[in-house]
Structures are given as C-alpha cells and as structure tokens.
Specification:
This protein has 278 residues and is mainly alpha-helical. The protein contains 13 helices and no strands. Keywords: Membrane, Transmembrane, Transmembrane helix. It is a multi-pass membrane protein.
Length: 278
C-alpha cells in the first residue's frame, strides 16, 4: 500500500512540474490565436463581457442563471482555455460554495440552503467564466486596442498588454531562482511516502523564499524595458491622435461578430422566456 501511494505521489509531482506550469500559463496567454473567440472583434467581446459580468449579480432567478452559465461555458470551451486555469476555477468556486454549505449545516441550517447556495455558485461561476473567455481567449494586443477604443487611458491598456508580455519573463526568472536554490540546497530523500511529504514541504518552502528575489529581479528587467520604451518615444506616441488612429484602424466588425452577438442575445431571450414560464 505504501509503495502504491509512493508511486501515485511521484506521478502527481512529475505532472505538476515547473515546466508543466510554465507551458500552461504561456498557452493560456499566447496559444489561443486560432480560436473562434480570438477571431472576434475585441470591442464586441468587451461589450459581451460587460453584460455577463454585471447582470448576473442583480438576478436571482435560477433558470436564467443556469442558462447564462451554460452559454459562458460553451464560449470558454471555444476559447480553448488551458486546463490548469479551468482546474483552478473549479477548485476555487465549488470548494468555496461547499465550505459555505457545510458551515450552514454546522450552525443549524438544513437542506433548504441548497437553493441559495446554488444561485450564488451560478453567479460567481458565470462571471468568472465570462472573464476567462475574454481575458484568456483574446490576444493581449487586440484586448488593449479594444479598451483604448472605449476610451480607457493609454497607460491602462498598455499595462494590460505589457502584463501579458511579462509572463514569459516572470516564469523564466522564477525558474532561474528555483534552480539557484536547488543548487545550493540539500533536499530530503523522497524514496518513501513520508520522504515525499517532507520533500513537498521543502519545495513549498523554497517557493516562498523565492518570492523576494523574483520580485527584485523582475523589477530590474522591467525598468530596462520601460527605459527602452521611453527612448523610443512611447510617452509621445501614447497621446498622439494620429498614432492612436493607426492602431485602431485594424478593428473591424465582421459577420461573425454580429452572428456571435445575435446568438448570445437569442439565448438570453430564451432564458428570460423560460424564467417567466417556470
């Protein structure tokens, strides 16, 4: 039994390696350029997100929320979001709801609390999946241009785009810091199940100690990038109307954008109809 548990824990640790996490993060940020969602106009997607990110908070009808959840779940699948992101979403949303339900039962509640908990879960899940669809399924530059078209400050839209571009550098720096700790450290033996538990605790400790060197090294490299942008006249280009017009000239509403909006509106109308009939 101990040998089976040891092999199982070893396979889990192998799958959740640093290279696996890095590939999942980079895939989620840059690997979705050929999807249906990525081909849509960012202005349409932002308007779509504003509806599904705000309206569910003010609706308590179960059938309407369930219909919206099914729609955003389909769009998330069309965006080809990385499996790690979906796993973290499911873990965060449903574990929190389960914790609240158990706390309700512990303090004198009964099964009647399931319906309010389900409404809360559908609200959070719908808004979260809508955010995942837009911010994970859309190219960072197109997302930045869409925000700029709506009048967001240039620095805000650029910061979002730059944050996506910082991901590879951040992951690379994090891996370098971890490797430096491992070269100078003495990890415990992990041949047995107890040793693997100690090894896991050791890895978590290294990750926590790597936070400050990671932030310091990333800040140094970010400063170099900012100075290069300043030398190339970024501050002037950010407020120049001609440059802004050139950047936004690539945005065009196509037939697929209108079809996406029409199908979404039709589905929402059907959800409203079902909620009034039930």
């Amino acid at each position: 039994m101990e040998r089976m548990m040891s092999k199982l824990s070893e396979s889990v640790l192998d799958k959740f390696s640093m290279d696996f996490l890095r590939s999942q993060v980079l895939k989620n940020a840059y690997g979705n350029d050929d999807t249906v969602i990525a081909a849509l106009d960012p202005r349409i997607l932002i308007a779509w997100y504003l509806f599904f990110g705000v309206v569910p908070w003010f609706v308590n009808d179960l059938s309407f929320l369930l219909g919206c959840f099914l729609l955003v779940m389909v769009t998330t699948l069309l965006a080809h979001v990385a499996g790690l992101v979906l796993f973290l979403f499911a873990l965060g949303v449903f574990s929190q709801t389960g914790y609240l339900f158990l706390a309700t039962l512990l303090f004198g509640g009964d099964a009647s609390a399931i319906a309010p908990m389900l409404v809360l879960t559908l609200k959070v899940a719908t808004i979260s999946l809508a955010s995942v669809t837009v911010f994970s399924g859309l190219d960072p530059d197109r997302l930045s241009n869409g925000l700029m078209w709506y009048g967001c400050p240039e620095r805000l839209s650029f910061s979002i785009s730059y944050a996506y571009r910082m991901l590879p550098m951040l992951m690379e720096e994090f891996q370098n810091v971890l490797l430096s700790y491992r070269l100078r450290g003495n990890p415990p033996a992990h041949d047995t199940l107890r040793g693997k538990v100690r090894y896991l605790i050791y890895q978590v400790k290294i990750i926590m100690e790597s936070f400050y060197p990671l932030m310091l090294n990333t800040a140094k490299r970010s400063r170099t990038t900012v100075e290069a942008l300043e030398l190339r006249g970024y501050r002037y280009a950010a407020v120049n109307k001609t440059v802004k017009k050139i950047k936004l000239s690539t945005l065009k509403v196509s037939y697929n954008d209108l079809l996406f909006l029409a199908l979404s509106a039709l589905w929402v109308a059907l959800c409203i109809l079902c909620s009034t009939l039930l």
